Amino acid sequence: MKTVMILGGAKGVGKEILKSCIEKGYNVAFSGRDATIANQLIKSLNAENKLYFHELDLNNIDEIENFYLETIKRYKKIDSLILYAGITPVSSILDTEEEVFDSVFNINLKAPYFLLKHVLKSMKDHKSGSIVFFGSAHMDYGQIDRAAYALTKSSLNTLSTHIAHHYAKYGIRSNYLVMGWTNTEGELELRKKEGVSEKDLQQKASGILPMGRMLNTFDPVPAVMYFISDQSAMTTGSIMRITGGEYI
């Protein structure tokens, strides 16, 4: 019986990963800020014994260790860690306020780093584990209005390869999934604030992305399920691009 821990998991692609894990019979610990949404999800899946939600604001890492400890308390070990949660502020170097910079680094980089600090110890003790980082096509240099975001995603790639290199001897694998432009709730909400409807967004994306459409929230899931399965036992340090051909 595998236990999967998701940083995030109540919305977007994270939610679809969670649902796929439940279908496989895995235990899942997930996190987020909205307990109401999480509890509705748990109830809808009728999987109270296989799901644990930990309320967590990633701007503050005080609860990170408790998330880990409660997961271990319930399920004894962590087989896979999915680092999904993140924010994508629209801001160039010239426009970035300190508050925005701190928030994107806290949520996208600091929180995963300190969760890994704890999870790696457990994986090391059990001599196995799979870590999946959610990256972005912005990782190389990013669009001009995604400067801080691009830096966090590049750093996560470095962190993934660092783990792959130094922790393989403990049976721990780490891989980086480059997720392209996806119609998550967060993306749709951001565009709505900009006055762009979902229909207009899809039309715009179809003219930009080589494969002609945005990703939906299901597209990255098979790759994640492969990375956390025993089929990928010798796969580590890899980058998998699920971007519809998009490079930034």
TrEMBL record:
Coiled coil start-end: none
Keyword annotations of the record: Oxidoreductase
Keyword Oxidoreductase: yes
Listed GO MF terms: oxidoreductase activity
SUPFAM superfamilies assigned to the protein according to its UniProt record, in alphabetical order: NAD(P)-binding Rossmann-fold domains (SSF51735)
Family matches, as InterPro entries: NAD(P)-bd_dom_sf, SDR_DHRS6-like, SDR_fam
Pfam families xrefs: adh_short
Similarity section: Belongs to the short-chain dehydrogenases/reductases (SDR) family.
Full protein name: Short-chain dehydrogenase/reductase SDR
Upper classification of the organism: unclassified sequences, metagenomes, ecological metagenomes
